[in-house]
């Protein structure tokens, strides 16, 4: 009996050690899977037509062909990249100084944007202004916008950043309307102000996420909107709200959870303007009622908010009509200036099926290039060695690098044209 008891006591610790090892192995497996540590690093996938412009860009923009290396521990997780962008914004983000401008819209709304002057001479010695449209419910005070603006200023760009209508907590609405998914009125007013105030400036149009939809729709709405525009860059947009609607209700990649969080944020913003939007105001949309306010309180998705509130600002009879008309999908083919469409393959908000839109466009149009890195999440694109990211992201550097290349391209074209005219005159 004693021998038997001794054997049992010696074997029990071994059994417990085995359970511990199995538990550790299971945790490590989950970490490796969740952090996507086995995923390789690689240069971004590029889809484009072989043209003189594309060849010039590949030569002038090293980031297009260089391997994008995110932080080793967490950088290959699109969820963590997205969460860090959303919660932290950027690392040690600067505080560029800008002047706030106010523009009265025809319907009584007050559009605001912040204007930042360049801090150095531009690479081609010209006056170039970046007109920037941030993501959903964002504005010039967001950290990722501040970081990008500061970097663009140091590269010689004037920057004008739209503050989405109703997004700034200290600016009251002056009409019963907020920003919506595809309304280009405020962005257009800002661009027109810049064109009028700086008659010599040329424009680089930049849109982030929802802002990417707005700027592409704006350019495609009218040929006149593309005058004095050198190029357009859209980062992390979804191209079609109608197609995205179904994918945003799915649980894979936690999209339904992201949908809920974004809807909750939108509810808070709308309710902060409750008196103007839902109060006794003769100017408010007749279809906006107290019942819509009640439904807003219980909404758990952006689609419910869009259906009950947002579409009614512009008189759309259905959510389908609103998404169909407000998406840039039907305007992309009308853009003739150089167009850079950037997405991340691991963006948890933009389903991979939506990426067929920029892919198909860039395969047909010489002015379009689609850039698709493996990692970056939604507006993350952090870089770094192991754990801590660098202040500047791959996205910040790519947008400025692309804009510089386009400016050089246009200057080269202009110089060649002047030389041809001079030779022709001598003959």
From TrEMBL:
The keyword Transmembrane belongs to this UniProt entry's keyword annotation: yes
PROSITE patterns associated with the record: UPF0017
UniProt main location, coarse: membrane
Gene Ontology BP annotations: acylglycerol catabolic process; medium-chain fatty acid biosynthetic process; medium-chain fatty acid catabolic process; sperm capacitation; steroid hormone receptor signaling pathway
AB hydrolase-1 domain ranges (all copies): 129-384
Classification via Gene3D superfamilies: alpha/beta hydrolase
Protein family: Belongs to the AB hydrolase superfamily. AB hydrolase 4 family.
Protein name, as recorded: Monoacylglycerol lipase ABHD2
